[in-house]
Amino acid sequence: MQIIVIGCGKVGARFAQVLSEDGHDVVIVDNDSRSFKALDPDFDGITITGVPIDQDVLKKAGIETADALAAVTPDDNVNIMVCQVAKEIFKIPKVVARIYDPARENIFQHFGLQTICPTQITVEVIKSMVVGEPKTSLHTIANTVLTYNYVKAQNTYFGKKLNSVKLKENSFVFGIIQNGSFYFANEDITINQGDTLVIAQKGR
Question: Which residue from 83, 142, 179, 180 has the highest number of Cβ atoms inside 10 Å of its Cβ?
């Protein structure tokens, strides 16, 4: 696939690296060229410096022929604008945005955009730990309901890389809560005692 990643922070850089290692054609865009230092030295994708909401920058990144775009900058406004441009103007088949403000999730979904909100997931996990409520939550992405289960890491996982954990069909490790912070499954994280795995499953 030809995939554009907007934002070269920790998540964007790691995501681009994983996609590239899997054989995809990856272009990563950031308005600060220094951000590309976060990429591995062996990254064989393309880096583009420029304002990601600029259509000329997106065209330079190959948006006219791209199969998918993921916007993972720290700015929710930038992410939603880039995703709208990708979806409405360039008709990109798959558009996904990471958002930090849970209150904006409905706005994204109103425009038919797929979203991931690690802030909301982290809050729900901590709440379930503090008040003892069921460690499960539901999120709708496009027309699909995903169930997120928050499971204490078993000792058989201690010392293993998070991305090495394999689950049954239709379930996957979405991320991990470690020392009060949330990390996506594709980040270089080792599972330790006291960690909570976030397991995603299709359906209720």
Answer: 83
Considering the domain architecture, whether residues 123 and 105 belong to the same structural domain is answered as no
Q: Which domain covers residue 98, as residue numbers?
A: 2-116
Point out the domain boundary residue: 101, 116, 131. Answer: 116
What does pTM read for this prediction?
Answer: 0.64
Dihedrals phi, psi of 34, to nearest 5 degrees: -65, -20
Going by C-alpha positions, the residue among 102, 82, 83, 109 that lies closest to residue 182 is 102
Q: How many domains does the chain have?
A: 2
Could you report the average pLDDT of every consecutive run of 10 residues in the chain (204 residues)? 94 90 94 93 93 95 95 91 92 88 71 72 66 59 70 86 79 84 82 88 68
Cα dihedral 184, 185, 187, 190 sign: positive
Pair (75, 171) in one structural domain:
no
